[in-house]
Design brief:
single chain; 641 residues; mainly alpha; 3-stranded parallel sheet
Length: 641
């Protein structure tokens, strides 16, 4: 424990003879910590001695992490790799079987205080009421419900099963505080976690109660049976509830419209109780078609790498944060800092960066007008294709709740593509692209809307739309608008410009002449396509690739050029899987013809000289250094003088 560790360190600092011989023995391994987790957490929080107030926070953090993620290590014999939260019961049973278990009552962590500051006193209650979560028939129903659900992230699904397995009787009533009387025993009040796990069913009809269309006394047992369970006769229910049949039917339609629950979002710490009860209670009360469809589990929010704590003074009140920075930047900063289940590391620097990015995008939308799009040039086809690909990627990420990835694509990857597009149109001195930029940013703003709803509406209006973006449709991916050959061609141009820039940066040459040599050797091209095909299948081992090449009559000459094969493998290994698949899908194109038509404008703009392009088989080739022989598909050789 952190307190024990710090006490030992205090003694060692005083040169205590016995303490100097003692080293902690760790029996729990926890992801994210070293060999001695207590040491890690004490040092990170800057604990100075055993009376430091930060030890409470250190203990709370470590105990929670060890309980949820900790596993017993190899020092624990038969219990190695057993999770802490389940292993303690197994160790207890093991001790009991060996007659080595001694039990004694203890009040832990006293005094306990509620949120208002009053001390909570635990007392034994006679005639307590329990929910029997240990009932195997009930557990079976809950497991069926859980197996039919989508749990995000999926790896946490086993935790739900573990909780359902070990759950047993749980008190469902109390005698103090506010709440609903237990229907069959008016001396008791329903305990909150016993029924609050289906409050979303009540949410579907709460507006009728809030506007006093329905009074509390109208909400009879017969009414709820008819509404939620489809039991009883409408006329009888209307009579017992003293409500009109029209009102009851309207409420029933509301419930049927919203149920079942599409997605329940909450923190990982509630897997042990609320979220598991949510599954159990729905399975017990509702018919299968009304069982929940999905649970999404997220981590906690950290502040500058540390847990939020009043004692550390690193808590920012939500209202203050929104007043200072706006709701959208705060929301995006949290989303962009972590994926599901990870702790989001929030910091104000990222808020400022995102705020600037949103303001920049708003300014850009203000300059764009919807207009007709004329004949498309190469760079136009490329940016339209890239936009479609991005729509597909963002849509998939959102559907799978990879929100950080989706947001990053909307805010930053789009920006990278648009930056290259701007460079291309500026080099050609074009001023006819407003329609294309309007179309692209419209899709971008529509996808940003669920993440940053307030500023997205402003952007949408600046783009000339009269309706709300929140009422617009999500952009749909269209494969007809994707030209994979154009994407490959433009990627070739981009990589060639980057290679020239890198050479100039390293050599510090002021170029007077730049010459590009492209591959025209059909044998090299066939070998390249074959290697590409093998690597898209997941293989990049030189020996395996070479065997595949030699076995194919069309590429058997590869055995004569192992250096070329190795370089192609290296080229492809540095590219993403999506780029490799695109190359495989696209038809080969004339690299020389494309670079001749597109390099002149951007080359002059970037480097101040005209760029010459030759095929390695040209009769009039200028190649004083013999560079042309090094040209590979999608990887031209470069000479700079």
């Amino acid at each position: 424990a952190p307190k024990d560790y710090q006490a030992l360190m205090d003694l060692k600092s005083k040169n205590h003879e016995l303490a100097s011989k003692i080293e902690p023995i760790t029996i729990i391994s926890t992801e994210g910590y070293g060999n001695i987790p207590a040491k890690d957490v004490c040092e990170r929080l800057g604990v100075t001695d055993q009376v430091d107030a930060k030890l409470e926070e250190a203990t709370e953090e470590l105990y929670l992490k060890e309980f949820v993620n900790g596993k017993l290590n190899e020092k624990c014999g038969d219990f190695v790799n057993e999770k802490v939260e389940f292993g303690r019961n197994k160790v207890r049973d093991w001790l009991k079987d060996k007659n080595q278990l001694e039990t004694f009552p203890t009040l832990q962590n006293a005094p306990i205080r509620c949120r208002c500051g009053c001390e909570c006193v635990v007392k034994v209650l006679n005639n307590q009421w329990f929910l029997n979560y240990g009932d195997e028939e009930w557990k079976k129903l809950a497991r069926n419900c859980l197996d039919g659900m989508n749990i995000l992230p999926n790896k946490i699904k086993t935790e739900f099963h573990d909780v359902i397995n070990w759950l047993h009787e749980r008190a469902c009533a109390r005698q103090q505080g506010l709440g609903t009387k237990l229907p069959w025993d008016k001396d008791w009040i329903v305990e909150s976690l016993s029924d609050s796990v289906i409050y979303m069913a009540y949410y579907t009809i709460s507006r009728f109660v809030n506007d006093e269309t329905v009074k509390p006394e109208n909400l009879t047992k017969e009414f709820f049976d008819y509404l939620f369970l489809d039991k009883g006769d409408l006329g009888t229910v209307a009579s017992s509830a003293n409500l009109s049949e029209d009102v009851i039917n309207t409420m029933k339609k509301e419930f049927q419209y919203f149920y079942p629950v599409d997605a329940r979002h909450s923190g990982r710490d509630l897997v042990q109780n609320h979220l598991s009860f949510f599954v159990l209670n729905h399975a017990a009360i509702f018919e299968e078609k009304l069982w929940p469809k999905e649970i999404v589990v997220n981590g906690s929010v950290m502040m500058d790498g540390a847990k939020m704590s009043k004692s550390m003074g690193n808590i920012i009140p939500l209202r203050t944060a929104i007043q200072d920075h706006g709701a959208d930047p705060i929301r995006l900063a949290i989303i962009s800092s972590a994926e599901l289940l990870q702790d989001a590391d929030f910091n104000m620097e990222s808020v400022s960066g995102i705020k600037n990015k949103l303001e920049s995008l708003l300014d850009e939308c203000s300059t764009l007008k919807k207009c007709e799009i004329g004949d498309l040039q190469t760079e136009d086809k490329w940016i339209i294709s890239k936009t479609q690909s991005k729509i597909a990627e963002v849509t998939e990420a959102v559907e799978k709740m990879r929100l950080r990835e989706a947001l990053h694509d909307i805010l930053f990857t789009f920006e990278s593509d648009l930056s290259w597009y701007q460079k291309r149109i500026q080099a050609k001195e074009r001023d006819d692209v407003s329609g294309i930029l309007h179309q692209i940013n419209s899709a971008r703003v529509a996808m940003l809307s669920p993440f940053a709803p307030h500023i997205a509406e402003e952007m949408w209006e600046k783009l000339g739309n009269s309706e709300l973006v929140s009422k617009s449709t999500w952009p749909e991916y269209s494969s007809d608008k994707v030209d994979v050959s154009i994407i490959q061609a433009e990627e070739l141009l981009k990589s060639t410009i980057e290679d020239i820039a890198n050479i100039l940066k390293v050599t510090k040459i002021s170029p007077k002449k730049i010459v590009i040599y492209v591959n025209s050797d059909s044998v090299k091209s066939k070998i390249y396509r074959k290697i590409l095909n093998v690597m898209v299948g997941g293989q990049n081992n030189m020996g395996v690739v070479m065997k595949e090449l030699i076995a194919d009559p069309e590429t058997t000459d590869a055995k004569k050029m192992p250096d070329y094969v190795q370089k192609v493998i290296k080229d492809l290994h540095s590219e993403s899987e999506s780029i490799k698949k695109m190359k495989l899908e696209s038809e080969s194109f004339n690299e020389k013809e494309f670079l001749l038509s597109e390099l002149s404008s951007i080359g002059q703009k970037e480097f101040g000289v005209e760029i010459q392009v030759y095929s390695d088989s040209d009769s009039d080739i200028y190649d004083p250094k013999g560079k042309a022989r090094h040209a590979r598909p999608y990887k031209p050789a470069i000479l700079i003088e």
